[in-house]
Amino acid sequence: MANLAKQAASGFLSMGALVFVITSLFLFIGKNLFFSGWTADHATITPLRWLSSTMVPVIVVSWGHGRKSLSTSGALLALIVGFFLTLAHYSFFFCLLALLITSSKASKYKQEITAKQDEDVKEGGQMNWLQVLCNSGIAFELCLLYLLDIGSSDLPVDFRHQYRASWLGMAVLGAISCCNGDTWAKEFGTVLATADPFLITTFQKVPKGTNGGVTPVGILSSFVGGLLIGVAYFFGILMTAASMDMEIAPNQLLVILVGGLGGLVGSGLDSLLGASLQFSGEDAKTGKIVEVAREGVIPIAGKMVLDNHSVNLVSSILTALLLPKIALAVGL
Questions:
Q1: What global pTM score does this model have?
Q2: 50-59, 155-164, 235-244, 251-260: least confident range
Q3: Among candidate residues 16, 232, 15, 292, the one with its CA nearest the CA of residue 129
Q4: What are residue 303's phi and psi, to 5 degrees?
Q5: 163-169 — which CB contacts under 8 Å span 24+ positions?
Q6: Which residue from 48, 86, 93, 306 has the least number of CB within 10 angstroms?
Q7: Could you tell me which of 289, 266, 288 has the C-alpha nearest to residue 278?
Q8: Residue 298 has what pLDDT?
């Protein structure tokens, strides 16, 4: 039965990928027949760019599904997100790829330990469609704005000469680095920290797995998780930005630092929201941390206003709004 289910899921993804490729082809033909471009200045998107934006996400998503990093529903949604991110800026896609790989690896690291503490841990660390939406939905919306305002253009971060493109690019970096930083903080902070975390709002000791609980290891991990997204963004700029644009732009290595700060700030915001607006309680029977107040659950912190997905979404929005200001402040 398990093999049949696996074959069915793989076949469904293959059919979805085929439909996606065919639809993309017809969209490109239709766009060129009826429109001169999808950008503010009517710039033309080259066939090679469109083809790479179609095929690269298909290859990466198929690999992620095969490695059980993505569920079937998550893979189908990631196809669409990956297409538009790649079409807008290759750095956006590299950030999404880094998020997929590193967050999945972090979730699988010593998962048996986190499973004993948290009721909501999923085996294999698979991302379903809701997790993909909450982790990349804001980046997806921002990349659509980038396409409409700037076009399909791989520009370096340069607020002096390309303010709107740089603002939107850093907002995308903020949204993705926030999600990766928070995942790294949660996973590595739980399994590597020797002491119990403290609640970010009251500094009181709380059990591991409590929403809003932080540790020095988790804080450092959030910064490293964000740095990896910054490295991915920098790599995209290095590969694709025009040399003429690079000559007048600030030192792009600062993008890596900004990515790290995005992971740190995003994880902090996530912890603040989790400690105040997300319920945490300890199940008296199992000893696990749960997010729903019910009989037999000892309250620890927070109100039952937001769930984990909502907290991730709100924190990524706030980080996306803050990170362009941080990037401007550090000299980009």
A1: 0.84
A2: 50-59
A3: 16
A4: -105, 155
A5: 166/324, 166/327, 166/332, 167/324, 168/142, 168/143, 169/89, 169/91, 169/92, 169/233
A6: 48
A7: 289
A8: 77
